[in-house]
Amino acid sequence: MTDTAMATRNSLAIEDDWSGFVAGRYREGKSESEFRNYDAAVVPRVAEFYKTNHACQTLDFVLGKEEEYFALRKRAMSIWEAAEFLNTLVDESDPDTDLTQIEHLLQTSEAIRKDGHPRWMVLTGFIHDLGKVLCLYGEPQWAVVGDTFPVGCAYSDTIVFPEYFAQNPDMGVAEYQTQYGIYEPNCGLNNVHMSWGHDAYVAHVVRDYLPEPALYMLRYHSFYAWHQQGAYQHLVSDHDKEMLPWVKKFNPYDLYSKGAAKPNVKELKPWYDELIAEFFPDKLDW
Q1: pLDDT tens-digit readout, 103-141
Q2: At what angle do helices 119-127 and 212-220 cross, to 10 degrees?
Q3: What DSSP string describes 198-235?
C-alpha cells in the first residue's frame, strides 16, 4: 500500500471512530454518568486526535487558515464535482466497509427529505460534509473534523477532553484565557473565530446561495458545546438564539442517519441535479 493510500485509510479510520464517538456521546436518553464517560481508554484513537486538535488549534492558526481558504482560490467545482472529489477519500478504505462519502451525504439528505423538510434543508444535508475536501488539499484530520469551539477566549469545560488544552500555546496568553477574550459581550457568533475545520469552510463557499438557517447548520453543526451543552451564552447574540433551533433540528440527521439503507446514487442523482441547479450556479469557487 502506498504512503498516500495508508494516510487515507488512517484518516478514514480516525473519522469513523470520531463519528461513532460523537453519535454515542450525544444520543438521547443517556444517563449523566454515561455522558461524562470521556475516558481515553474507551476511545484511544479519538483521544489522541483531540490531544493534537486541542494543542494546535490556536488563534493564529485559525486566522491563517481563514485567510488561506476564505479567499476561495483552490479550484472551481460544481457541488456534484466536489462530492465526487470527496469520494476519492475511500479509494483505499477499509475493505470491511463499502459506504462512500456520497452515500453518507445522501443518507443524511434523504432522511431530511423523508421527514418533509424544505428543499433547501435537504440540500444542506447533502453538502454538509463537502468541506472535508480539506483533507484532499493536504490538511491533517485535526484541522478538518472534530468538535469545534471558539478560539481567542477561555475554553469551556463542556468541550470534549478539555484537559488537552493545557498544551495549547494560547493558554499562555492571558487575554485569551478570560471569559470574553478578544470579543465583546454577546457579539454574535459571526464575529467569533471558531477552531478550523470543514464546517466553516463549506459554509463560506455557499454563503451567497442558501438561506441563513442553512448557513448556521453548516457552520455550527460541530459546535456541540453551544448547541448541545448551552455553553458560550456570553458570546451569542439574540439572533444566534433565534437560529439555534435550526442547528438542533439538523443535528440528529447528521448523527443518526448512518444506519439507514444504502442509497442508490444512480437513481437519486437526477433529483439532486435538479435540486442543486435550483440553488447553485454550475461552478463555485472553493
Answers
A1: 989 999 999 999 999 999 999 999 999 999 999 999 999
A2: 30
A3: HHHHHHHHTTTTS-HHHHHHHHHTT-HHHHTT---TTT
Q: What is the pLDDT of residues 56-112, one digit of tens each?
A: 999 999 999 999 999 999 999 999 999 999 988 643 323 334 578 899 899 999 999
Instruction: Give percent of the chain with pLDDT exceeding 90.
Output: 74
> Whose CA is closest to 189, among 231, 131, 160, 133?
231
* DSSP code, position 42: T
C-alpha cell at 34: 454515561
Query: Within 10 Å of residue 215's Cβ, how many Cβ atoms?
Result: 21
- Among candidates 153, 136, 149, 71, which has minimal Cα distance to 101? 136
Cell of 233: 451564552
Q: What residues does 77 pair with on adjacent strands?
A: 284
d(CA 87, CA 99): 10
The DSSP call for residue 156 is P
Angle between helices 212-220 and 238-256 (to 10 degrees): 60
Residue 177 three-state SS: helix
What does DSSP assign to residue 194? B
Query: Residue 238: CB partners within 8 Å, gap ≥ 6?
Result: 186
* Predicted structure pTM score: 0.85
Positive or negative torsion for Cα 233, 237, 239, 243: negative
Residue 49 grid coordinates: 486526535
Number of residues written out for the chain: 286
User: Which phi and psi (to 5°) does residue 116 adopt?
Assistant: 80, 25
**Which cell goes with 43?**
476511545
